[in-house]
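Worked example 3 (structure in, sequence out).
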């Protein structure tokens, strides 16, 4: 029963980490609108993989890796900031597609996944968010059992991935509302 409790607690943590609108939610929604569900979900899944990594660090108490990440938070912040600025410029200059580009191939999906991994991994707030959420959920105590830690980490991944599935699925369902033909015509006014 402890394993199920740990997994449910991890699931709640995964959702709590993923839900706030931030640097991954916006690209996830944008890619879903422009290219379709697979691209949006791949973006969110990249964030879920990093959530899995960081929750593993927190759950298994690998303080050396955590302090290493915190020691290099300035460099990670700079890389993340440059990446965010690049994405913002590309988004601002790009024209939305009239239809999803589902024939973009796996290279596009892999690119969406990898860019999300990089963006999430270089965001120092992700590490600090896990520390705060784990403390808030009282997770640090009682994780001496490796099995409970493993179930907790798997729960975090499941919760985070579930959120990205829900978000990209919901945006894909309402995508037609954002089609260019539904946009108001300002030129004719």
């Amino acid at each position: 029963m402890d394993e199920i409790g740990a997994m449910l607690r991890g699931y709640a943590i995964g959702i709590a980490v993923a839900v706030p609108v931030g640097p991954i939610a916006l690209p996830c929604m944008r890619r879903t609108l422009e290219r379709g569900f697979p691209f949006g979900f791949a973006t969110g899944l990249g964030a879920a993989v990093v959530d899995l990594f960081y929750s593993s660090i927190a759950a298994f108490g690998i303080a050396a890796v955590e302090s290493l990440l915190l020691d290099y938070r300035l460099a990670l912040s700079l890389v993340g900031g440059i990446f965010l600025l690049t994405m913002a410029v590309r988004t601002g200059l790009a024209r939305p597609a009239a239809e999803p580009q589902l024939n973009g191939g796996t290279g596009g999906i892999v690119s969406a996944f990898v860019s999300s991994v990089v963006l999430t991994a270089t965001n120092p707030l992700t590490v600090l968010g896990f520390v705060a959420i784990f403390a808030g959920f009282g997770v640090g105590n009682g994780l001496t059992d490796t099995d409970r830690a493993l179930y907790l980490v798997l729960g975090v991944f499941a919760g985070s991935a579930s959120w990205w599935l829900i978000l990209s699925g919901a945006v894909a369902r309402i995508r037609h509302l954002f089609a260019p033909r539904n946009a108001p015509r300002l030129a004719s006014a």
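Notes: Residues 182-189 have pLDDT under 50 and may be disordered. The radius of gyration is 18 Å.
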